[in-house]
Design a protein that fits this description.
Length: 132
């Protein structure tokens, strides 16, 4: 993802309209963390959890959500990509039945902040074919 520094003028023909983008990661409580991420980092201490959503740049569509565990002391991060799918319709209410799916946890070295960790995770997932 190519981010533009604040105040930098960008011509339309210079915009990179490919890939994914995300809003800043927000810290979340351990109670909000997906079970597979919690299991992947079990036993770690001083871990902080973050979440953000991924947006496809060309279509401006929501692709899914990321959850990250960052252990600054160990210099490691672990993240998962979450997607939600409609699997059925409730026969009584007609409401969609939603199922959340998570990728396997991706672990990697991380010595930077949250944004660097999110960027690294997106890069790894793109290379693995998980996200476009």
């Amino acid at each position: 993802m190519r981010e533009q520094p604040i105040g930098e003028a960008v011509e339309d023909d210079e915009l990179d309209l490919t890939g994914v983008m995300w809003p800043p990661g927000t810290e979340i409580e351990v109670s909000e963390v997906h079970a597979s991420l919690a299991k992947a980092i079990a036993g770690s201490r001083g871990v902080r959890f973050f979440a953000t959503r991924l947006i496809d740049v060309p279509s401006d569509c929501h692709l899914g959500n990321l959850q990250m565990a960052i252990d600054e002391t160990a210099g490691e991060a672990c993240g998962i990509y979450l997607t939600t799918h409609i699997t059925d319709l409730d026969a009584e209410t007609g409401e969609p039945v939603l199922v959340e799916e998570a990728t396997r946890p991706f672990k990697f070295p991380c010595t930077g902040g949250v944004e660097e960790a999110i960027s690294s995770l997106c890069e790894k997932m793109t290379l693995a074919g998980v996200i476009p």
